[in-house]
């Protein structure tokens, strides 16, 4: 099995000091296998053909060494990353920005179809050193002369198989022709079909081949489940699991040192006996923490892989992978911390929708499926709380001397003329105000986001940037909702409904909260069921942002979005023009039936999730 080599740290990989500092700041402890394999070769300037999935840490595997080789004082694109979708472009650009945070005067620019040309042009004029873009839009800029690749050092193809599936082969070929001779190429692909091999043979020069594999291993003694959940609901799901699962000791795995502290603090705030365990703590401190777990003074440790290495505590009945491990073999090591000494163990894996590919890689590694589980429902929580409440009542009745209280209730009955049932109901109410017995809301189900292999349907993400496509008239990009226009921040947005297909909304999270376009797109897409590609311009201002969304947002989704959080801020969405919003279902303000290619706030049929639930329950349509 491909055991992660935890003996090699980032410090030994030869990264530029400013880049190594960013890694340290981000709290990464050790390189993932794909990083260990790629970084030295990319640093040495070699071409590389890498087979690795999203979630393995592959972005850092190319970003860290390539950033270590750029010259921050030289303007113009030195690194060009091609990605199949706008979401991935944003995600990779954001990762680059994080890794380049200590490089002075350094600019990273995502460019993708559907975004205003005007905005992209003004950003391109600032000569960013890294461009991350979808092939169609990159090609357009090259053809218009608004992007030049004469100082390019490295071209990266990310998720190359997906780009070929989406019909980008010719665009990519054309882009290759525009790159200077001798540039380095790194090609990453989750699979290695013949098409990718062909690109590698024709375009890469003596490439190193990297494959992140893990031999199969079975872990039969541990009961394993996974739960798909958006990043925004992970904490809710975890606290619900903690409330319902009978556990003795629990180990919760996260990716970074910072996350151990953050999550442990949040769990403590929820009343759980939790502490972090990470590589920043001294050996003595770690030992003391583990001892407290053994003694039962603590129930939950929130740990990174490194800190939990070799941990052997009989009491550990549960392992929760709060962050899915970046390589499948780490999963086996993590869950092996439970089920010690012949005891039963249980492992729960939280999977964000975009990480489903990594779940499948884990299943291949352990040669069995990890069945899905539902997050605990509102009614399960209520039942469990009522059971505990009932047990506490019984215990109090049998164990406590209640003479004073019997007299008090009798007095309330006679002096205040209160019914005993009324008194009991009011007292029950008072005891549960912090933690309601009647839990109302189920957590929303994550929308089925981008499939791992793109569907070949007519509206796949970025599809119209690929082949076949209609002749360009010079200013076309990714699909836009009917009537949407590609104007930039500089133009006033349509405030009315219906005329141009998009409506401008204001959300109360902005630069000062550290919000990024990706987080905003992710939150709105996951919570509204709207596909990310229909989300238009995002203009992040200081304390708020403006977001263009297709017209006709159902009122219940509008109301729900008000309470969605990004960076700890409730979005409190409102129409940018301050008028009332939300379309009534059935009694709609929109006319006619939606066309099949029109954006929909619930494109994918969902299993009963909050949308359906809420609609069924809605009694007052106003
Ligand atoms: P990727 O496969 O590039 O999508 O990365 C998956 C996730 O792993 C991202 O959230 C990264 O921030 C995180 N990550 C990448 N490398 C490391 C590392 N060495 N240690 C901890 N987390 C990492």
TrEMBL record:
Motif (Q motif): 8-36
Class of this enzyme: hydrolase
EC assignment: 3.6.4.13
Location in or out of the cell: Cytoplasm
Bias (Basic and acidic residues): 450-493, 600-612
Annotated Gene Ontology cellular component terms: cytosol; ribosome
Classification via SMART domains: DEXDc (SM00487), HELICc (SM00490)
Pfam families attached to this UniProt entry: DbpA, DEAD, DeaD_dimer, Helicase_C
Positions of region (Disordered): 438-505, 577-622
Main localization (coarse): cytoplasm
Family to which this protein belongs: Belongs to the DEAD box helicase family. DeaD/CsdA subfamily.
Protein's UniProt name: ATP-dependent RNA helicase DeaD
Gene giving rise to this polypeptide: deaD
